[in-house]
C-alpha cells in the first residue's frame, strides 16, 4: 500500500519535471501512470466484486495520513493533466473539463481548476458555465503573475 502511494508520488513529481521542460505529452503519461498506481486504493472501493462475503483478498485499510496522501496525489494529477491537455494540440476540451471537475469536487475553490474548467467550457460553447468558473477563478487567484496557468 505504502509502496504504491510512494510510486504514485514519484510519478507525479516526474510529470511535474516534464511539464516544466515543456514535454506535455510525457508529463501527461506520468500523471496517468500515477493515477493507475492509486486505482483500487481509494477507501470504499473494492478492487473486484467478491461473490461470497468475507472470502477473497481485501485491500488493507488506509491510515488517515495515507488517505490524505492518496486524495492529494489524485487531485494534483487530475489538475496537472488538465494543464497538460491545454498545451497539447488538438486540445481535448471535454477531457480538460472532466479532469477540472474532478478537482473541483474535492477543492471547490481551486483557482487553477476553476480557470481550466472555464476555458474548457468556453471552447465547448457553454458560455454561462465558462463565465461562472472564470469569475470564480479571478476571485480566488493568488496575487502576482497569473498563477492559474502553471502546473499544480
Automatic annotation (TrEMBL):
It comes from the Eukaryota. Gene3D superfamilies: Tetratricopeptide repeat domain. The keyword Repeat applies. Keywords: Repeat, TPR repeat. Transmembrane segments: none annotated. SUPFAM superfamilies: TPR-like (SSF48452). Belongs to the TTC9 family. This is Tetratricopeptide repeat protein 9C. It comes from Octodon degus (Degu).
Amino acid at each position: 500500500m505504502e509502496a504504491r502511494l510512494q510510486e504514485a508520488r514519484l510519478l507525479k513529481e516526474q510529470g511535474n519535471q516534464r511539464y516544466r521542460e515543456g514535454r506535455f505529452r510525457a508529463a501527461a503519461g506520468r500523471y496517468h501512470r500515477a493515477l493507475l498506481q492509486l486505482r483500487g486504493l481509494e477507501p470504499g472501493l473494492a478492487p473486484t466484486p467478491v461473490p461470497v462475503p468475507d472470502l477473497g483478498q481485501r485491500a488493507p485499510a488506509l491510515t488517515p495520513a495515507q488517505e490524505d496522501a492518496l486524495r492529494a496525489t489524485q487531485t494534483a494529477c487530475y489538475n496537472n493533466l488538465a494543464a497538460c491537455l491545454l498545451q497539447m494540440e488538438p486540445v481535448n476540451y471535454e477531457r480538460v473539463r472532466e479532469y477540472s471537475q474532478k478537482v473541483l469536487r474535492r477543492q471547490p475553490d481551486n483557482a487553477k481548476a476553476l480557470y481550466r474548467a472555464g476555458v474548457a467550457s468556453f471552447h465547448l460553447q457553454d458560455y454561462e458555465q465558462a463565465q461562472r468558473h472564470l469569475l470564480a477563478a479571478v476571485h480566488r487567484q493568488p496575487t502576482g503573475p497569473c498563477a492559474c496557468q502553471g502546473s499544480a
